[in-house]
Target: Coenzyme A biosynthesis bifunctional protein CoaBC
Amino acid sequence: ALPRDLDGRRVVVSAGGTREPLDPVRYLGNRSSGKQGYALARTAVQRGAQVTLVAAATIALPEVAGAELVTVGTAQDMRAAVRQAAVGADVVVMAAAVADFRPTDRAEYKIKKTDREPDPIGLTRNPDILAELVQARADGQIGAQVIVGFAAETGDSAGDVLEHARAKLKRKGCDLLVVNAVGEGKAFEVEDNSGWLLSADGSERAVALSSKSHMASDIWDAVVPLIQA
Ligand code: C5P
Model:
C-alpha cells in the first residue's frame, strides 16, 4: 500500500508541452508526452493529496481520477493557471515542457503560401514560470513550501550532465531538481534512463527511471521530508 504521507496537502503538477501559435492552425511545439506529470499527479492523489493538474498538450492519457484538471495551450496560459493554483499550494512540481520562446507575431489568418521566400519567424522569450514561482514565494505572494523543477540535460558524460544540472538548480532557485540525461554522449554514453534528484541543500541521489510511476514515487519520497509539519 502507498503511504498516505500527502494527506491534506495541496499539490500542483504541470504536465505536457506548451504550443505557441503562429496562426490559427499552426504552432511551435515539443515532443513532451505528459506521462511523467500525469504519473506524478496520480501518485500524489494515491498518497492523499488534493491535486491540481495543469496540462498542456499531451499524448492520449487516462484521466487522473480525483485530480482537478486545468488544460492550457501556451506558456502564458500555463503561467496564469499555475500561478493561480500555486497561491494556496504546499508543493508545485513543474514537470511540463514549457516553450522557452514563442513566435513574436501571431497571424490572425492562416499564413498563405506565396511564390516569394517566406518571412523568417521572429521569436520572443517566454516567462520562466519556475523561476517566477521562486520569486513569488520570496515576495510572500504564494505559499508553496516545496518547488520542484525538471531538467533534461545533454553532456558527454554523467559528470557534464550533473554540472549543468547543478548550475540550473542554482539559477532557478527551486528546492529540488529532477534531472534526466538525454541525447547521445560521445566518450561516455549516457544511459537514457538515468536520472538524479538534486536538492538545494546539496544532497544528490541517482534514481532509476525504469517506469514513470516508479520515478514519481521517488520524487514524492524526496519532497515529503521538505514539507513542514
Ligand atoms: O531552463 P529549462 O527549460 O531547462 O528548465 C526546465 C524547468 O523549468 C522545467 O521544470 C520547466 O517546467 C520549467 N520552465 C518554466 N518556464 C519556462 C521554461 C521552463 O517553468 N519558460
Remarks:
- The chain has a mean pLDDT of 93.
- The chain is about 25% helix and 25% strand.
